[in-house]
Amino acid sequence: MGNYFSPEKETASREQIREWQSKGLVDCVKRVYENVPYYRNKMEEAGVTPDDIHGLEDLHKLPFLTKDDLREAYPYGLMARPLTDCVRIQSTSGTTGRRVVAFYTQNDIDLWEECCARALVAAGGTKDDVVHVSYGYGLFTGGPGLNGGSHKLGSLTLPMSSGNTDRQIQFMTDLQSTIICCTPSYAAYLAESINERGLRDKIHLKAGIFGAEAWTEEMRHDIEQALGIKAYDIYGLTEISGPGVSFECSEQTGMHINEDYFIAEVINPKTGEVLPDGEKGELVFTSFSKEAFPLIRYRTKDICILSREKCSCGRTFVKMTKPLGRSDDMLIVKGVNVFPSQIETVLLNHGYAANYQIIVDRQKNSDSIEVRVEMTPEMFSDELSKITAREKELVAALKSMLGIYAVVRLVEPKSIIRSEGKAVRVIDRRNLYKG
Ligand code: DLL
């Protein structure tokens, strides 16, 4: 048994949770049907109206929502409340087509921050902790989410944001940070930097809350050893609120989904059929409590397994495994979501053909991305300095499109192996999804 931020919610009976979800769903469907023409059209196309939805048992009648819907409805088309009721916008990285913009009322922010506070408490956090938030702040949800959760808990919050490792370590030692929140890759990098500087003894960390990208059990072990902490996983996505959709407890065997706010389903990504607990499939969320931007049956593209087995922490919320892969081609590199199509767009816009390869690797827990692209025969006959200049130009264009640095290598025409079937454009050497 442990401590909880919202004990009455986190340990509620399954019947109670089902009742919250049923009532919330019925209410949410009515709200979106009345206020969001996009939803009304979708429901009409599927031949379903709010009168058909009496509770959780009718969820399967509702159509799925995908990233394509979000793109089509960008930016305001899925809002269920007028803009004047909203107090915040968050967004994912990516080009307009891929970018997700989420809107929040004050209530939506409160709900989200409560989820993050629960994650902090599950990791042993209390109001006496110094919570060092090194997720990025800004449009990305990581920094604002954990920052808000830490405030809700009453902990002392250090809004460090990412980068400037020397300053991070200095604050960490001077102000005796006890909980660190960042991506697992950055945690590994911080751990390495701390140990290199011989400062391990000056660190007071006891726990870390790491998410936003896939990481393995081996990586967890390495970080725990290097920093002398317990490392907890946290999951979330901008569309549904941000970090804290689910979080790990002391058992560290999967993440509890905040089911008083979100309904989780796992489906067969090919057929859309709902799968029973224990089976692997695509995770789908219904954020029925959200006011400004509630999503019904949103397909996350994350592959995982749900389990409702009793947890020794006492929480009754369903648990999801770490994401075991994705059903689309999105990569997460240095914590940033990258679609190969974004890279292709840059290449084509700069006069290259679509003969390229993206190589993602992780050395010493730090991600790298290299783009190899074939020159046209005319470019190939250019002098070296011109080729180097072209590479630099692509590096800058990719940085501006993706927000991260990618190595660019221009290679000889016809040197990238042609595939007889689907082109193998991405080589991900990280092996991230082995659990
Ligand atoms: O990454 C929110 C977040 C911030 C979660 C900080 C945890 C901590 P997005 O940028 O919208 O939101 O990316 C969402 O990231 O669909 C997953 O594919 C992936 N992801 C998030 N958490 C994890 C995790 C934030 N713990 C996408 N393990 C999701 C593996 C994760 N993948």
In CATH, what is the homologous superfamily of the largest domain? ANL, N-terminal domain
Strand content is 15-25%
The end-to-end span amounts to 26 Å
What is the overall silhouette? globular
Give the beta-strand count: 21
Strand order of the main beta sheet, please? 4-3-5-6-7-8-9-14-13
- Predict the CATH topology of the largest domain: Rossmann fold
Total helices: the number is 12
User: Describe the biggest sheet?
Assistant: 9 strands, mixed
Average pLDDT for all residues: 94
CATH class placement of the largest domain: Alpha Beta
Proper CATH architecture of the largest domain: 3-Layer(aba) Sandwich
User: Which hetero compounds are present in the coordinates?
Assistant: 5'-O-[hydroxy(phenylacetyl)phosphoryl]adenosine
Helix content: 25-40%
Number of domains: 2
Class inferred from helices and paired strands: alpha/beta
Low-confidence stretches: none
Descriptive notes:
By secondary structure, this protein is α/β, with parallel strands linked by helices. It has 2 domains: 1-324, 3-Layer(aba) Sandwich (Rossmann fold), CATH 3.40.50.12780; 331-428, GMP Synthetase, Chain A, domain 3, CATH 3.30.300.30. The protein is 32% helix and 22% strand. The protein is built from 12 helices and 21 strands. It has helices spanning 7-10, 14-35, 37-45, 67-73, 106-122, 142-153, 165-174, 184-196, 217-227, 340-349, 377-380, 384-402; strands at residues 88-91, 101-104, 130-133, 156-158, 179-182, 207-211, 230-237, 242-248, 255-257, 263-267, 281-286, 298-304, 306-307, 319-320, 325-326, 331-333, 336-338, 356-363, 366-374, 407-411, 426-428. The chain has a 9-stranded mixed beta sheet with strand order 4-3-5-6-7-8-9-14-13. Helix 9 (217-227) links the parallel strand 6 and strand 7. Helix 2 (14-35) packs across helix 3 (37-45), helix 8 (184-196) packs parallel to helix 9 (217-227) and helix 10 crosses helix 12. The longest helix has 22 residues, at 14-35. It is globular and about 70 Å long. The model has no long low-confidence stretch (mean pLDDT 94). 5'-O-[hydroxy(phenylacetyl)phosphoryl]adenosine (DLL) is lined by residues 92, 135, 141-142, 211-214, 233-238, 242-243, 300, 302, 322-323, 332, 337.
